[in-house]
Design a protein that fits this description.
Elements: H1 5-20, E1 23-29, H2 38-51, E2 58-63, E3 79-83, H3 89-107, E4 111-114, H4 120-130, E5 134-137, H5 149-156, E6 160-163, H6 166-176, E7 183-185, H7 202-207, E8 214-219, H8 231-244, E9 248-253, H9 259-268, E10 275-279, H10 283-290, E11 295-298, H11 306-313, E12 318-321, E13 337-339, H12 344-356, H13 364-375, H14 377-390
Parallel strand pairs: 1-2, 1-4, 2-3, 4-5, 5-6, 6-7, 8-9, 8-11, 9-10, 11-12, 12-13
Length: about 400
């Protein structure tokens, strides 16, 4: 078939467009926009970093439990999204698997990023026969215990594993016989332009009846399966703290089915007037709530703990558990207090030290500077950009 000059040019333009739009990466996640949490925050930072790449690199994102129409500010020419939420989780998984296989065969991307260990069997099964390398992103507790054999096998066969902390790297590699040379630490980040210090907002002081109070704060899910977050331990410590700071109050931000138990615990201990359950707080309001806090308290077991970064970026001193991934954001205690996570007495003693304010770790300006130098969003983007660029095949 003969082509006119204009038709030939159009054809060549289509070819060039296809070449320019080569699919470099595929990302596969459980959910990002239908649920809030540390993992979701981390993934959004990944999307933001991807969209700032200077090179002409393109990716597609497969979301198992999110649905089309959700608020997604990351959709762009560089990053396209596919949604698979359905009434049946099995149907959703099957649809996503078929769509993913089709794209892998058609496009042969340079690398697939598997956003959760639970998805490793699916991603590994599809990528291995096609010779497509894949990276599994891990976060914390989901890989601290021995995984089912098929999950473990596909994790072991991954070209690379990302994890957010030294603690998770060591625990996961021991529990699941992983090659530590494959594990790359990619710590969480905080946006220092968004999380900034500020005065205690008068309207929030009035809303929560916190005027004149020394405010301890936690931001966490209040789920019965997440008792390890340590809200109950902090409630148990309040009586001791109140002996030194009778004006102390504990602001708990979050929602979940464990709230009734925690409310009853505060009542049983006679400190219900010192515990304020704020419920869910939208992301855009969170910074103003950090401004209420004299100390951020979460004696937990975290894979990392983005909330510690957020608090410190706002100039708020922090307390964490001492046997988890929080060693990284707190830099082994240099930036905050680390205590046994179920020890009420240790939590109380550390809270009293923080509220006295004599330690350098209570210096908000110093704290913010230190945390942003290591965990600011620019440092995070630089790490990710290096990883994304290094994973692209050179033509």
């Amino acid at each position: 078939m003969l082509m006119t000059p204009s038709g030939k040019n159009t054809y060549l333009n289509l070819i060039n467009t296809k070449e320019n739009k080569k699919l470099n990466h595929i990302f596969v996640f459980l959910e990002v926009f239908s649920r809030e949490g540390g993992i979701q925050s981390y993934v959004k930072d990944v999307f933001q970093a991807y969209n700032t790449l200077s090179e002409p690199i393109n990716g597609e994102v497969f979301l198992l439990r999110d649905q089309k129409g959700c608020a997604n500010p990351f959709e762009s020419e560089r990053l396209q999204f596919h949604y698979f939420k359905a009434k049946s989780s099995q149907i959703a998984r099957m649809k996503m698997a078929l769509a993913l296989l089709k794209r892998l065969i058609q496009e042969r991307p340079d690398r697939v990023f598997c956003g959760h260990a639970y998805l490793a069997p699916l991603v590994g099964t599809l990528c291995q026969p096609l010779g497509i390398p894949y990276t599994v992103i891990t976060h914390g507790k989901e890989v601290w215990q021995p995984l089912p054999q098929w999950t473990k096998t596909n994790l072991q066969k991954a070209s690379q594993i990302w994890t957010v902390s030294r603690y998770t790297r060591e625990i996961a590699s021991t529990a699941n016989s992983l090659n530590t040379s494959k594990i790359q630490i990619m710590p969480c980040a905080v946006d220092g332009d968004r999380f900034t210090p500020g005065a205690k907002p008068a309207d929030l002081l009035e809303r929560y009846d916190l005027a004149g109070a020394k405010v301890l704060m936690s931001v966490t899910r209040l789920w019965s399966g997440d008792i390890y977050k340590g809200v109950d331990v902090t409630i148990r410590a309040l009586s001791q703290i109140a002996e030194v700071f009778p004006e102390v109050k504990y602001l708990v931000i979050g929602r979940g089915d464990d709230k009734p138990r925690l409310m009853q615990l505060a009542k049983d201990l006679g400190v219900e007037n010192k515990v304020v359950f704020a419920g869910f707080v939208a992301t855009e309001e969170l910074v103003r709530h950090y401004h209420l806090a004299d100390a951020y308290i979460m004696p937990s077991q975290e894979g990392f703990g983005i909330v510690y970064l957020e608090a410190m970026a706002c100039g708020v001193p922090v307390l964490s558990g001492d046997a988890d991934g929080s060693a990284d954001p707190l830099q082994d205690g240099k930036l905050g207090w680390r205590v046994p996570h179920r020890d009420r007495d240790s939590v109380a003693a550390a809270c009293i030290e923080i509220l006295k304010g004599d330690d350098q770790r209570c210096d908000g300006e110093w704290l913010r500077k230190e945390v942003l130098s290591e965990f600011g969003i620019k440092a995070f983007q630089k790490r990710l950009q290096q990883e994304f660029l290094s994973s692209v095949k050179k033509s």
